[in-house]
Amino acid sequence: MRRTAKIALSSAASVLLVLSACSSEGDGTSGVGFEDCDDNPLECNSGERIDGGDLVWALDSGWNGWTNAKAETFSLSQLTVIEPVSPGHIDVLPDGSDDLDTATWDAEPELINEDPMQVRYQLNPDANWGDGTSIGYDDFIWFWYAYSGDPTKCEACTPPSTVYGANVESIEEEKENSFVITFREGYTNPEWRYTNVILHPAHIAEANGFTDWQTNPEVMAASVDYFAETPPLEWSAGPYRMIRAEVGDYAIYEPNQDWAGDTDRTLDTLTFQAFNDTDAIFTEMRQEAVHGTAPRRFDPNIIDQLRGAEEMRHNVAPGAAWEHITLNTQGEFLSDVELRRAVFTAIDVKRLNERVYGNATDELDQKLNHLFGPDDQYFVDHISQTTQGTGDIEAARQILDTAGYTWDEDDNLLSAEGDHVRLDYRVIADNVAAQTKAELVQFDLENIGIDMNIDPFNSADLTSMLGEGEFDLAQFGWTANPLFAAVPNQQWHSASASNFGKLHNDDLDATIDRIQQTLDMDEAAAYANEAVAILTEEAYVLPLIHNPALIIVSEDLVNVRDNWATPTRATYNVAEWGFVAQ
């Protein structure tokens, strides 16, 4: 059972719902099952389920590890495959309300002191790891150390963010199943209710040889590596238990009989299967080998095919994921901010969005703020104040000329040292839309004399490619949600392992730190916009568009619907999935 209450956040929660209502394709035969999602987002495509069935859900990319405690393995596909076995916390639902996982928690987190900030967490007494072991104190400590960024706790660990772990002062068990986390002086978080504090079972680490993880930071790091490399076949705190898996390929689950939730799971098995592209998924769905998907990327031309596929239900709406181009600020050439500004100026974002997504949605405007949507109360247009994304070749050339760049007789761009400017653009292989975008960018940069090489990579290698800095330009997506306070630290702070382009700006770091020094949402948002302004001036990340979100399900699949407000989207209620009772 989950307990639901209305969210008290930035208006970002309602913004994307409004946008979704404007562009849903839930009418006629093209959206049967989703036609009432705008008016009834929590119950659309719902129905009574039969007992039994083997459901196959397709992912449009693989994954390279089993934990989100390492930046190198952290990805949306990884989050998805770990979700059915992980302890829950508070999710945001499709209607903007928030949802406490009462299988794990007995009550919502409680702020018991502001200075220093102290938060009480109360576990459900029945919450367990599926092997007879209760969730407890050591699990809080393991999560803290893994996300601390502190080499005295976890040697050479690279969590995707240290916003939480680096600011914990202590964790105490005040009584059975009740824990108080005390944070460092000066640290606050306006979104403290939504902070995750548990991930993996500490006793499993100990059972596999990492007995000294609390006192030896090298052993602690080794335990993180263990969870990254080992599929969670020994444990589950979620509604399903993983029974077989191959990293980057598939994971198969059956109902977890020890789960403390009270939602009946009707499926015999659930399978997450990775594919390289949506064309392959669509083919498998026509053959009834796959029952559904909510891809992060898709060829917009597939929409025409879906409109004629009566055995499938689909919906397209503005999603939470947004695409961008990130530059490697430590690269041979792109360490120069003036070159970065010229590159972003030369790229015609409007044309790119129209060419790639014009067949899928009318919502083609460039994203103009890295954090907030255009109807959000905190939205400030930072991009239009610059030439970034305009495709203004003359302006881009002027930036370069002023910065001391020249061109040879063949119009090849030369650095101030006389070197030809050559850049590598990394793009996901076998993805038509991504390849089209890369070719458009290549054309734009040729117009300012840059020789740009398009270098494909396997989707499962995304995080490792980014983490190792093997790019000059990289096109990928972040998934937004109604929470914003932790995002700048994770993506742009110089100390973050997820700051893939290695931007280092002391003013930006200081501004990001201030976001976590207030409980006032308005003040935090003001600091967040200051951070976006600095980021934009650095020409580090060029926002493109909020990706249109596509979901496809077979006509006999019920209780499956998209959720714009959570990174894993449709799998937020996986315990309720099933096949319709005829």
TrEMBL record:
PROSITE patterns, A to Z: PROKAR_LIPOPROTEIN
Domain of life of the native organism: Bacteria
InterPro entries: SBP_5, SBP_5_dom
Statement: the UniProt record of this protein carries the keyword Hydrolase: no
Signal peptide: 1-23
GO biological process: peptide transport
Molecular functions per Gene Ontology: peptide transmembrane transporter activity
Protein name (Swiss-Prot/TrEMBL): Solute-binding protein family 5 domain-containing protein
UniProt entry tagged with the keyword Membrane: no
Lineage, top ranks: Bacteria, Bacillati, Actinomycetota, Actinomycetes, Glycomycetales
Domain (Solute-binding protein family): residue spans on this chain: 108-492
Keywords assigned: Signal
